[in-house]
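Hi U.,

Before I forget, here's the chain from the pilot set. I'm dumping it here mostly so it's searchable later in email.
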Amino acid sequence: MKKTLSEATAITVQISAESLSPLHHNQLPVITTELLASLYGTEVNGIQQNFKRNIARFVVGKHFFKLEGNELRDFKNRLTDSQSVAKHTRSLILWTERGAARHAKMLATEQAWEVFEKLEDCYFSQRPERRSTTTDDRTPLRDAVNILVGKKGMMYPDAYTMIHQRFAVSHIEQLSQTQMLEAIEYIHCLLLDENHPTIPDFSFITTIKNGKVTGMRHVAKGEHLMTFDAFKEIAERAGYLVIHSDNLRSMTLDKLMVMGKKSAISVANSAF
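Structure:
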């Protein structure tokens, strides 16, 4: 008995959806534009154009992720042999389940909806196993422990035991990414504990991108952290002119001299 085109398409979709190994980003199943277009029976350009024409309806982190630079490189390094991204790709869009659903709605074809239903059941329903952090991931935590040991005079085994007990693990390798962030915050709180005999007289900067610690360092001696507006105000009080390059290009010498005189007067008045 011959199968209808719709029935044949449904069977193909089921096999394709069930055989796919999901990509994951931020602990969520995601799919590339190329794969989504292939499954929906459209061109890559069709997906891209729908996105551009309706960009206000797509929210980063909810419907899609855009990977670039180090984030894209790290994502490529996590891919298995059966998963691949073009080697020279400089940016990559990854669609979440909601993003894939939005594209199916825009295409409004029977195949797109059939495929999405299969993806919903067989692809997006697969969640990644809890992944322990890598050695590089744990570097900021080890740095925080080094600071704690140095400032509080603790022994390393005691410092790590506190972390193990707090998070019910036997080694920091068992910490998830979220727990590692919490562990760093916990160490920082210990450093600032006024009940401890040694109170730290230093500051540190922790950089977090997409929920992942990407760096931590001491604030150097003489280095200050402030907003641009605060910096501008301090600089002008000290007699400096802070002018954007775009404004400077269109400014005449006479106008620049006038601004300089006003700045000098302002500095002189503030001295009294």
